Amino acid sequence: MKRLSFIIGLSGFVALLSACNEKQDLPDYPIQPVNLTQVEMTDDFWLPCIRTIQQKTIQYAFDKCETEGRLENFITAGQVMRGGTGKVRGTMPFDDTDVYKTIEGASYSLVNAPDVQLEHYLDSVIHIVGQGQEPDGYLTTWRTIDPANPPAKWIKSGGGRWFGLNMSHELYNSGHLFEAASAHYRATGKRNFLDIALRNADLLVKVFGDTTNYEVPGHQIVETGLIKLYQITGKQDYLHLAKKFLDLRGDNTHRKIYGAYSQDHLPVAEQDEVVGHAVRAVYMYAGMTDIAAIYNDSAYRTAIHNLWDNMVEKKMYITGGLGARHDDEAFGDDYELPNLTAYSETCAAIGGVYWCDRMFRLTGDSKYFDVLERMLYNALIAGISLNGTEFFYPNPLEADGKYAFNHGACTRQAWFDCSCCPTNLIRFIPSMPNLIYAVQDNAVFVNLFTSNTANILVNGKTVQITQETNYPWNGKVKINVKDAPKQSFSMKIRIPGWVLNRAVPCTFYRYSDATTDSYSVSLNGKSIQSELKNGYLELNGKWTGSDVVELNFPMQVRRVIANENVKDNQGLESIEYGPLIYCAEETDNADFDNIKLSAGNHFTVEKADILNGINLIKNGTATFIPYYAWSNRGVGKMKVWLPF
Prior knowledge:
- The protein has helices at residues 6-21, 46-67, 70-81, 96-112, 116-131, 141-145, 165-168, 170-188, 192-208, 222-233, 236-247, 278-295, 298-315, 346-363, 367-380, 420-428, and strands spanning 32-33, 39-41, 398-400, 437-440, 443-446, 452-458, 461-469, 476-482, 490-494, 509-511, 520-523, 526-528, 536-539, 546-552, 557-562, 572-577, 580-585, 604-608, 614-619, 622-626, 637-639, 642-643.
- The chain contains 16 helices and 22 strands.
- GO terms for molecular function: beta-L-arabinofuranosidase activity.
C-alpha cells in the first residue's frame, strides 16, 4: 500500500480532533492520555511490531474475514431483508466483530501511516457492513439471516431479537461496532461508519433505555463503546444507558440473573472478587472505571479498587496473564494458577491493559502502569507471532509439546473459528502509543519507555519530548525536553516497580535474590535525588528548551518466587529481566527435562540475532528467551517456572 506524507495526514486529524473537542467540556478522567496523533514512534521494539500489523496482519485478517464468510454475512443479511434467503457462515454469534476490530486497527494505522488505498478499502468494507443493518438500526447478521437457527449450539433458539442475551452476543457486537466506529471517525473524519454505529446506539437507547426493560448484556463491552460515542457526540442517553447496564447487573428483582460467569451474581458495586469469564470481567471493570470517573461515583470507585487488588494479589500470572481455567475461559479460585493448563487468554491481557490504564488515569498511581507494563511485554504480545500471522488464544506458562492447548494445536495457529484474539491484537497494537504519556493540568506523566518524539499540549502550550532508549534490552533512557514554554511545568517519570525491588505492587510475587544496585536520574548532567510520590519522580520548574533528563535503571536478571499458596509453583522460581519474563524452550535446551536454576545469580546476558533480536540469558548449561517470543520456531516444550 502506497504511503503518503505523515504530516499531511496528521494535520487533518488534529484539525478534526480539535473540532470534536470544541463541542463541549464533558466530565472525564482527571488525567488524559497523550493521543497517538501526537507521538511518532522511532524505537526498535514497538515500531517493528506496529509496522508488522500495518503491513501484514491487517490485510491478512481482512482476507480471512472474506474467505471465512464474515463479510459475506453482511451481504446475505441485506439480501434477506430484501426478501431473499441465505445461510449464516461461521459458527460464532460474534463473527461480525472480527470485521469491526480489524477496521479499528486499520483506523489507528491510518493515523501514523496514512494510506489512500487502505482508506478506500475501509470505505468499501464499511459499505458492506451497512448492507447488513436493518432500517431501525439493528445489526447482528446471524439473527437477521436465520434467527431460528443460531450458528452455535450453546445459543438459545426460538426467539427474536435480544432473546437469550447472555449468549446471543448482540450487545457485544454493538460494543465493538461503537469502539471501531469511534476510532474510524477520529482517524478519518468520515461519518460513514459512525452513522451506522449511531443508528444502532439510538435503537439500544429506545429498547433498553426504557424504564421497564431490565435486561443487561451477557458479554460486556457495549458499556465502554457507548461511552466513546458519548464522548464524541455529547449525547447523554448513551452515557446513561452504559451506567444502567452496569447498575442492573446482579439485581434479580425483575429478571433471572446470569450468575458469576457473567459477573451478574451481585450488584457491581458490591463485587470484590474477580470471577467468571475473564474477558467479560475486565471489560466490565473498565466500564465501571469509566463510570467512577465520569460520575465521581464513590461506590463504583471502592468496588474497582477491591476488584483490582484481588486480581493482582491472588489471581494474576507472573506474565500478567488473566484466567486460570479453560472451562468457561474463567478466573479460578484464589491462588489457582496452573501452568500447563493455564488459559490466560490474549483478549484478557488486552482487556487488563485497558483497565489498568483507566485505573491510572483515575488515580495517578504508578502501580497500575507497573502491572500494565507486565501485561504488555509478556501475556499480551505473546499472543502474536513475530511474523504477524500466527496466534495464541490461550497463553500457558508451560508446554509439553503434546497437550493441544491452543484450540486443537500445541503451537500457534493461523486463525480460529473463534478469532477474537487475532483481531483484538490488530485493534490494540497500533494504538499502543496512546499509553506512553499522559497529562494533568501542568504535569506530564512519562509512563512507558520507548524511543519516540511527542508534541504534548500542556496548559495550551506545546512541549516537545524525545525519548532515546533501547528499552527493554537496556535500562538507559534519555529524555530531551525541547520547545518548552516559558512557564514552568512538572514532569512525572514512572520509576518501574521492578527497579524498586518490587515485582508486583504486593507480595504475591517477590524477588528471592538480593540487589544492591539502584537507579539514577540526572538533569542536565546534575544528579537528582527526590522522594517518589505514587511511584513517580517529579521534576518541577522552568525548562530551558534544551534540557536532558537521563535515567539509568539497573538491568539484571532477577529470580522470582510466588506466594506459597500457589501450589503449582511451590519449589519453583521464574526469572525476569527488566519488564520481561523469560522462559526455557526445548529448541535451545537439549537436556530440557533436567533444567535446574543454579544457586546464586550466575547469569549471563548476551545479545542474539535470533527471534528478531533479543537478549539471551544463560545459567549454567540452560538458555532462556523472552516469554513473548516462544513457539516461533516450531513445536516443543517450554517452561516459565523452574526448579532450583
